Amino acid sequence: MSDFPFTILDVAYLLRLNIRRRGNPLVVYADCPICGEHRGRMGLYPQTNTWHCFHCGESGGMLLLYGKIHGVSNAQAYHEICDALSVGGFPAENGAPAVTGTGKQPQEDPASERAPEREIHRTLTALLFSLTLTQAHREHLRTVRGLTDEEIDGFGFKSTPPYRLCRELTEDLVKRGLRVQGVPGFYVDDNGGWTVKFYQRTSGFLIPQRGVDGLLHGLQIRLDNPIRDDNAPPEKKGAKYLPLSSAGKRLGVTSGSPIHFVGDPHARVVYVTEGALKADIAHALTGRTFAATVGANNTGGLDELFSFLSRNGTEEIIEAEDMDKHHNVGVYRGACAVHNLALKHKMACRQLNWDPAYKGIDDWLLALYRKRNEKKE
Ligand SMILES: [Zn+2]
Fold first, then answer.
1. Which of 98, 136, 202, 358 would you label with 265, given CA atoms 20 to 30 Å apart?
2. What is the average pLDDT across 55-70?
3. How far is the CA of 55 from the centre of ligand 1 (A)?
4. 68 Cα to the center of ligand 1, angstroms
5. What is the average per-residue pLDDT within 120-133?
6. Separation of alpha carbons 195 and 165, rounded Å
7. For the domain 117-243, what is the CATH code?
8. Mean of all residue pLDDT scores within the chain
């Protein structure tokens, strides 16, 4: 057996290979992700952690398999696999980190304390400034999300950079006197240099999370390819959003659960939903003020925000959590927390409901908006 802390079956799981049949204890047959055949002609050999496709003839070790699919080197494949199987591979808000396969725990790496918010703001702002938004992501934000170019640029969405640029981007920030230690996403790699955690398997576009103070407190990645949880039922699509976090990495730091705020800090009425992107879209469509938690249950930061808003003149909170609050106990629980916190800070609170065919308030508003525009034309 090898010294790897994972097996080829762990890699098959990460690559979401379609397992067709188990020949005997020595071989598992899957569809080949390289040539795309669909008859389970790729043999995976757990004893040697190798694979061979009887259709296209490709073969090799498990790092090569992962590397071929994601276009990364063996060394990077090793890091990404370890990371995905032990820490940080799944959104932190989903509970315990996923450990699968051999279940070997990584050694404890020292963490950093969170840097002062103003420093985090400066560093993440500079990071965003050095990135671009790909045409494909801009097109998605335009056509699927209904945002204008002006809004897209205003909110500051950017595409995640390729892995090979992470070190360089970080060095550049350090050279400019910006602090990276204690900023979510940054950590010290195996070569002893500071870098930032952008992987190919977690590529996507970045959503800035700005507080009511106007500072950037964190970034969320909207994944190009959702990550499936091992224990999730088959109909579940997998996580679409991931915080930019370096929890579990050397001198890394967790993202926390920053509350995103968009609109007027003196608004009489403030809407609360989950997800910064949803809030941005709903704000762009209505001009109303929105606060967004990371997930429906990450309501911790709302206490401080509501205290501030209440003193600032807000009279009413409108709970606008996704419509699955009526059957998803987690979302329902989050919605109740919003109501209780509003009452605690002496603000009125009511629940917003809409056509349940639309899950999020952004989907519903966008559909309304598009219908109205159709009528005008
Ligand atoms: Zn093949």
1. 358
2. 93
3. 5
4. 12
5. 97
6. 9
7. 3.90.980.10
8. 88
Q: Tell me the CA–centroid distance for residue 32 and ligand 1, in Å.
A: 5
H/E segment holding residue 262? strand 260-262
CB neighbour class for 306 (10 Å; exposed up to 12, middle 13-18, buried from 19): buried
For 11-31, write each residue's pLDDT tens digit: 888 888 887 877 676 788 889
CA–centroid distance, 60 to ligand 1, in Å, is 12
Q: Is 260-376 CATH 3.40.1360.10?
A: yes
How many angstroms does the Cα of residue 30 sit away from the middle of ligand 1? 10
Give residue 37 CA to ligand 1 midpoint distance, Å: 6
Same fold: 8-86 with 260-376: no
**How many angstroms separate the most distant Cα atoms in the chain?**
69
Burial of 137 from C-beta contacts in 10 A (0-12 / 13-18 / 19+) = buried
Nearest-angstrom CA–CA distance, 218 and 247 = 13
Distance, CA 57 to ligand 1 centroid (Å)?
A: 6
The predicted-structure confidence for 200-255, as pLDDT tens digits, reads as follows: 889 999 999 999 999 999 999 999 988 876 555 666 667 899 999 999 899 999 99
Q: Which fold has domain 8-86?
A: DNA Primase; Chain A (3.90.580)
Q: Is the whole model's pTM more than 0.85, yes or no?
A: no
CA 31–ligand 1 middle distance (angstroms): 8
d(CA 363, CA 124): 29
Nearest to 256 by CA among 303, 217, 216: 217
CA of 24 to the centre of ligand 1 (A): 20
Q: Which two tokens stand for residue 296?
A: 């429906």
Distance 50 CA to ligand 1 centre (A): 14
Backbone φ and ψ of 241, nearest 5°: -125, 145
pLDDT at 95 over 60: no
Confidence of residue 102 (pLDDT cuts 50, 70, 90): very low
Output phi, psi for 161, to 5 deg: -80, 160
Annotated domain spans of the chain? 8-86, 117-243, 260-376
Cα-to-centroid distance, 281 and ligand 1 (Å): 42
Distance of CA 267 from the midpoint of ligand 1 (Å)? 58
